[in-house]
Structure formats: C-alpha cells, structure tokens
Amino acid sequence: MRFSWPSPRHLFLAPLALIMAAPLIWMAITSIETPDQARQFPPVLIPHGIDWHNYTRAVDSAPFGAWYLNSIVVSLVVVLSNLVLCSLAAYAFARIRFFGANVLFIALLATLMVPFQVILIPTFLIVRHLGLIDNVSALIVPNLVNAFGIFMLRQFFRTLPIELEEAARIDGCSRLGVLIKIVLPLSVPALSTLALIMLLWTWNDFLWPLVAINTEKHMTLQVGLSTFQGQHQTQWTVLMAGNVLALLPLVIAFLLTQRSFVRSIAASGVKG
Amino acid sequence: MRLLRSDHVTGWLLVAPATLVLVAFGLIPIAWSAVLSFQHNDLLSAPHWVGTANYQALRHDPVFRKSVHNTVVYTVLFVPISIAAALAVAVALNTRIRGISIYRTAVFIPVAVSTVATAIIFNWVFDPTYGIANWLLNELGISSQGFFQDPDQALYAIVAMTVWGWIGFDVIIYLAALQGIPQELLEAAAIDGAGRWATFRSVTLPLLSPATLFLVVWSTINALQLFDEIYNTTRGGPLQSTTVVVYYLWQQAFQFFNAGYGAAVAEVLLVAILVVTLLQFLISRRSVYYTS
Amino acid sequence: MATVEFRAVTKRFDDVVAVNDLSLRIADGEFMVLVGPSGCGKTTALRMVAGLAQPTAGEILIGDRVVNADSPGRRDIAMVFQNYALYPHMTVERNIGFGLRQRRMPRAEVQARVREVSTLLGLEDLLRRKPAQLSGGQRQRVAMGRALARHPQAFLLDEPLSNLDAKLRTQLRAELKKIHQLVPTTSIYVTHDQVEAMTLGDRIAVMSAGRIQQLGPPQEVYDRPANLFVAGFIGNPAMNLLPAAARSGVLTSGDLRMPSPDGADGEVILGVRPERLSAAGDGDARPAFDITVDVVEPLGSEIVVHGSRVDSGAGAESATITARLAVGAMPAAGERLRLAFDPAATHVFDAATGAALRSG
What we know:
The structure holds 3 protein chains of 3 kinds. By secondary structure, chain A is mainly α. Chain A is built from 15 helices and no strands. Helices cover about 70% and strands about 0% of the residues of chain B. A two-stranded antiparallel ribbon of chain B has the order 1-2. In chain B, helix 7 (about 155-180) crosses helix 9 and helix 11 runs antiparallel to helix 12. The two termini of chain B are about 40 Å apart. In chain B, about 40% of the residues are buried.
C-alpha cells in the first residue's frame, strides 16, 4: 500500500469532535474525581484513580430508582398508546371515506400548530380537574395521542399499494383485519420511527412534568435530576455522577442503534 | 348503500379514541387558553372576567418587554448560527475518510442528551472558578469570564450551550439531504466546468433548500419556546438578562399564580409563532427548490 | 360455482359515467372476457362484482343472490390483480392459505388445499419463499394459486398477464386456459389485449364508453363485428376501412366497384381484413385497388405490407392499408401494388351510425 496524506478535513473535524465530546468527557471525569480534585484551577483533567463514592452518594441521597421507574412507565405507555391509537386513526384517514373525515383531520392537525407551552395553563387546569395532579398518570393521559403520529402514519399508509388491502378484503378481512394483518406488518419502519420520536419526546420532556408533579418520588428522571441539582448546588462531583446515571441509558441506546436512530430522525425530521 | 354506511361507522370508531384525547388535551386547551387570557385566575379562587386588562398590563410590563427582547435576541442568534454551523459540519462529514464514524458519533451524541442534563453539564463547564471553558480561554491567552453569572454574557452562553445540544439534529437532517442529491447533477456541473465552490453555491445549496427551510422553521419555533435550559441554568437571571417569554409565562402562572396573565403571554407567543412561521414560508416560496 | 349477473348496472364517478346500464349474464363455469380500450368501464365492472366499487344503480347477482350490500369478503369470489397484490411479508404458502385461514378453515384442510394448488401450478419448491424472491412469472402463478385455493364462486381476473414479457405472457395464457379446462370455475377476465380475449374467452364482451358493443363467442365477434368500433378493435393488424358509397346495388370506393349488399344506400364504410387481401393477378376478376407500398415487414410465415391508396377520391380513412400476404415476391417500398379481395369476405357498415349492414 502506498502512503497517502490524510484528508485535510481532519484539521476541521478533529477539533470539532473534541469540542462536541469535551463537555461529556469532562462530566464523566468529574464524576469519578474527589471533591478536592474538582475544586482546583487549572482543572485536574486526568484524575488520580477512580472514586466511585460520588455515585453511591448520588443514589443514596435521591430516589433515582423511582425516577427511572416513572420515566420508563410513562415512556412505555405513551409510546405504545401512540402506536396503537395513531395507527387506528391514521388508517381511517388514509383509506376510509367517512362523514366529516376531512374537517376532523384538519382540526386534529391544528393541534400541531400550537406549541405545548401555549396550552400549558389550561392543560394544567384540565388535569387538575381530573384529579391527576402529582400523579404519574398526569404525565400519560394528555400524551396518549399526538397528532404528529397520525399525520406521519397516514402519509406512510398511503404509500402502500391499495391492491394488497383490496386482496385482503376479498380474502375475507374486515377493515380492522386489513390494518392488523396487512398494513401494520408492512409499516414497521414508520412505526419504529414514531416509537423512537415519541420515546425521545417523552423521556426528555421537562416543562409538563415540572408543572404536573410535586412529590419527589412521583417525578420523572428529568424533573428529578433538576431537583437533584437544586439540592447539590456546587457539589459538582456528585452532581455529575447523578447526571451520568440519568443520561446513560439513552446515550447507550443511541450508541448501540446509531444507524437506525439517525435514519429515524432524518425520516421524521423532528426532535422535541 | 349499507356498505357505505358501515364505512362511516368504521371510520368514526377508528378515529374516536384519538379524537377524544386530542379534543380534550389539544382543542379544548387551545380555546380555553384564549378565554383565560381575558380572565383573572389565580389557580385557586373562581376566575372572573377582566376584559383586555391582561393585555393592557402586558404593554406596560417592563419584565415582559425584557423577555420579548431576550427571546428575539436569542432566536436571531441561535437560528442562523446553529444552521450555518450544521451546514458546514454536514458538508465536512459527508465523506468516507478514515475515522468518519467517530466524528459523526461525536457530533450526533448530544441529540440523545436531555435538555436538563445538558444544562447541568454546562453549569459546570461554564463555572467561572473551576470550569474548563475558562481554562481553555486562559490557555488561549484570554482572561476568565463570568458566563452564566455575568448579565452581559449569560444569554450568549445560553446560545452556545443550545447550539451544542441542537447541532447534531440539524446535521442529521442536512446529511440526509446531502446524500439525497443525485450524483449525476454534481457530475453534470463538473462537466459544465463549475468549480467546487460554484457547484456548492449553484447546485448543492439550492437542492438543500427544503432541508434549510425545515430547519429554519423548526429551529425558530423551538427558539421561541426556550424554557428547559433557562430553568436549569440561570432561572432567568442574572438581572433578568435571560428571562425569555416562556420562562416568564411559567413564572406568572406557577410562581406568582397569575394564570390569566400567563395565558395572555401565551396568546402573544402563539400569534408570534404563527406569524413568523407564515412569513418564513412566504419568503421561502421563491428560494426553495423541490426535486422530483 | 355460480352464475354472475349484471342487471342494468350503472356506475358514475362524479359526472363521469364509467359503466352505463350494463346487463350481462355469465353462465355457470363460463369464461367471460371483458375487452376494450382503457377507460371503457371493464375494470369498474369487475370491481363492482368484487365489491370494491358500489354500483350507482342496478343490481349485481352471484348465483341467485343480490350481493350489492355484501362486503367483498362475503361474496365468496377470488380476484387476481394486475400487480398480483401478493402480501410481501408472507411466504408463498401463507399467501395462498391466507383467504382460507381468514374463513377459519381447519389447518389440515388449508395445508391440503395449498398442496393441491401448488402441485397444479408447479409451486412446490417455492412455498417457503417470500414474493420478493420470485420472478414475475412465479408471482403470477402464486396469485393464481391464491385464487384457486379458495374454490370460489367465481374468479375475477384484472389484466393478470399485462405485467409480463411477451414470451411469458403467451406461455401463461395457455396455462390459464388449461387450468380453466381442469377447474371450470365461472371466470370474468378483464383485458385490453384482444389476442388474450380471442384465445381465452368462451364469450367476449367488447366494451366502449361504459357499454357493451358486442357480446358473443370470439370467432363470431371476429367474423361478424356488429359495428365499426368492434371491427376496428378486434383483429391485429386492424381491419382496413374504406369510405365508399352505395347506389342502386353498386358499391364504389374510388375506382373500386363491387356489388352492394341489400339495404345499403348512401355513405358506407367497406371493411376488409388484412388477411383477405392478396396481390391481384393479371386479368383478376375480383374487385381490387392500388396502393403505394410504404413499409414491408417480412415475418417469416407471411409478409405484412403497409401502404397508401393511390385512387383519386379516396378519403382520409383509406389513406393507410395493411395487407397480410403470402411469402413470395417481396414488394419494395415505393412500389405500386394492386390488391384484390373476395367481395363475399367483406364487411359493410353504415357510415353515419357505424352499425354493420353486412358481415362477410
């Protein structure tokens, strides 16, 4: 093999990658330093040995387990319910001509035009009226369906050859049977994109859980982490350990599934 | 016509659950928010009508003005910086050199990091006494800065932090768009004698315009809604230098219990978002090209 | 198996009439071909039998039952689609058995049916494959198999061969015919290809503008087209149509003269099939006309000559003439050629109504 000069792009990309990675790397380094090492300037960039105490202190001082569980439950239920309910509605809008379909579709899409921040206060009042404030279900019920999912799946369903559905109806399937046995198995790419997007939105959601939950053990990871920061102002090593614990699952999931993760985001063009 | 009638029934049965949720937690709150903005509501006692008093008060509220100003400055900086940077990074990453997957991973990874975690990390990075940001500046011969603690710098530090958090998403969109450009077009431009820069300006950039439009609209909407990163870093300070509109909305409704006043802020925000989005679509009509 | 009947069926899409007052009875076991150009209403008619489209007026019967209100699944019919519509996520075996499982047939019976049709169609080795792993011809066979396995009241076939290349199409056409002889199920076959119509149909219905132009056995439709549309549509190359005038028993077209059929008077169209034309010999007593040869296509078994009439007074329609001639002397382009025909083998149509006055 002949020697070839590395591409000049490295001169731009290597410092860039370092800048992008530096905050995360420094978080990880700080999380295994002793408080003394963290309180030095210039900073200690290579710690002397590994100190796991920050992690035990973080876990001991805050209900990370409950926060994880709440985040998992909320995300799981929201993702599943969106997959099911958006599929049903999207199929009807894609293939069935029923009375009022167009008007209803536009009305539901209108909810996408209005950001959540704008309806935060009335949503709070409605959820409080339902008696759900400070209850994990307050984080689930308003998010059971997102109009984005209906819109995205409808567009996808319309690209499937309609003859398949006609053949299935001749073979004796009902509308629901066609959806379950023919359309959904062929829509796995769109469904997994929707699942990932809803997962990112729900897992990282902050404003609504902040408003809807007061009790520490009912919090999700994001709100919990925020309170954790409030309780450990300037205890940087513990704070970084808690932060590592909180962001690790999604970062690991990202590293493991980077290709499909990136493809899904590119396909949907949305991050919350 | 029994079959037709049954289609009406089936259709409505399928959309009913989704409709129920979206009416209860989408359409009703949209209408209610407008109603609230004409009421006094402290979230506890019965609300009463105050006409346009909330809007009148907004006009003379210096903190609201400050929050609008901060939001506009933030948006005007964040949107072009993040998109231009993402474009440059995407073009650099759109190649098959050795190590490219490491570079890509480094750029994409903040997409998987929540806004709260990002804020906590940058509180530490920008710590005026021990943070690595100041260490880096010192190494470059620049004196230490206050960042989040300096009223003149806090908003810019917020811009830097959110660009870090968002650029990966923008790059993903741009990379997908770059890979969608037909190779023949670039080859045709080369045969026509266009240099690299000319090809980029007259072929690549126009073909990326749908992605650019999407990112401009999406980034603007998100910039106008900024909250998480403020709440978890500066809490609107110092000296209200980072109080943005949604933060003020939240403060009014959930700290000061002026829900009616907060709703008026929300309505102003909604109108601003709709107008800005509409303008962006109108302006882009001439400059966005769709292939196929 | 059952009869299928259209009773005064009309289908309107907004203000377009796709099928206009169609009445047609397809006998038990009959192979009926609906043939016509695109937009003639043949596919819409088929989809109404399937239940995929609803008639605007009229009734559709399968057996003795009016099925207008029945969903497609309850009509007990099977359909083969132009693009086959094989379920991409299912194996061949599951594709063929899908309709049976939907009807809750016991598993052993489903397997027996799948085995039966896969033997008949030579699909035994493909049962574990998915549609994407099949060639076009194999997909077509699976689509047929899926329909056959159902043992339905009727088969509906919508241009099932048109996505195949010419050679495969000829081969599968013959197979279709063989299958229908083995399993004589009532079949409605929609095509725009008149060769498929001629070769497959027990009877063919030539359609245009939402109406049946002619209904009958293929040979009868070929030999005695009921009107100008059918005459022009059935037969390849198409029938030559010469503007002519009939006056007191004599029919003239340019310098061509022949006896006129009874009842013909005034402007008429004289139709002669290309294979009925032959080169006129010296002193040939048959009626004849001259052409200038434009293009010669030697096909091995015969020669197809395209030319233009040179007679004065010939109208626009007579501008081009096609003749299928026996192999022999090869005319050259630009050459003048005299073509003669037997007056008994001609068709005469009313120029105004298009109706046949005589079919030879």
